[in-house]
Amino acid sequence: MARTAREGSQASIKDVARKARVSIASVSRVMNGHDTVGAETRKRVLAAVRSLHYVPHSGARSLATQRTNVVGVLLPDLHGEFFSELIRGIDAVARLRRLQLLLSSTHGDAAELAVAIRTMRGRVDGLLVMSPHVDAALLDKNLPSSLPIVLLNSPLEDARHSTLTIDSYRGARAMVRHLVGCGHRRIAHAAGPELNLDAQERLRGYRDEMASALPGVPPQVLPGDFSEKSGYLAGQRLAAQPDHPDAVFAANDVIAVGCMVAFREAGLRVPDDIAVAGFDDIPLASLVSPALTTVRVQIAALGRSSLEQLLLSIESPTRSRPVSRALVPEVVVRESCGAEKPPKRRSRRPAVRLP
């Protein structure tokens, strides 16, 4: 008498093949999504899978396909709406492709980055890395050269790896240009972390546009980080000045919100007494009062595009080539900058299109 999977025990691929009256190879092809299986065979296999409550053994499948179906994601931090939106975009593609994410934060520390990279070695099919500390030597020392990697907002320019970046420099120049167009002349900048690439580029864009659009007007930079507390302290310093600036351009939206809280406590009205602008266009930006003028970055689209590019490298390593793409942000005008008539908002189409 033929053996069948006993009630309460886990069915095997042999049990599925026997019940569906097909070979084990046919079951494997169906479970791995190959299109070389006939419709009738696929139907019988799936019916047997449901009947036996069969769950593929991930370890055995990895040995057969040499894939873990896991993608590693290394970020400098997990706190805040920027990273929440980025992960949301990555996760959308992962769920669609039935992949798991192995997520880690390096907290902006170079040593932690090296440890995290080594920990993921052998556990993932590919790696998304966002870190100000990543360089070629670190990757070569800690990872096999064959592992597909996509770098996000990385200072490393390496032709071996795809890179996706936010053009923070152009976005910052566009925002300062807009504030000047609104009639503001004394424009301060509440900066982000000194070692962060985006913060550096936004500061550089601010300085260059101030020099171009307002020659002779000295820039005013308030150092800080990407936190609301940093913005609050910057706002307190600006509000305490006897002759405060006309406007403040913050390196991100969270800093801008912190500034607005400090201004309100000091009795300054936004935008009547001082205009405020941010960067990123996190969901909160349109909900604060007054709504925040900002530089829109398609954060979730950046996450989606980065994983899509990584999967191209994983699935077609000999045919896919590393690419370098810059996400170009756009100014979104709301009430906080004092513009008399905000232009019609553009659609939220992803700004990054990859092959």
TrEMBL record:
InterPro entries xref list: HTH_LacI (IPR000843), LacI/GalR-like_sensor (IPR046335), Lambda_DNA-bd_dom_sf (IPR010982), Peripla_BP_I (IPR028082)
Ranges for domain HTH lacI-type: 11-65
PROSITE patterns: HTH_LACI_1 (PS00356), HTH_LACI_2 (PS50932)
Molecular function GO terms recorded: DNA binding
Protein known as: LacI family DNA-binding transcriptional regulator
PANTHER family: HTH-TYPE TRANSCRIPTIONAL REPRESSOR CYTR, LACI-RELATED TRANSCRIPTIONAL REPRESSOR
Keywords, comma-separated and alphabetical: DNA-binding, Repressor, Transcription, Transcription regulation
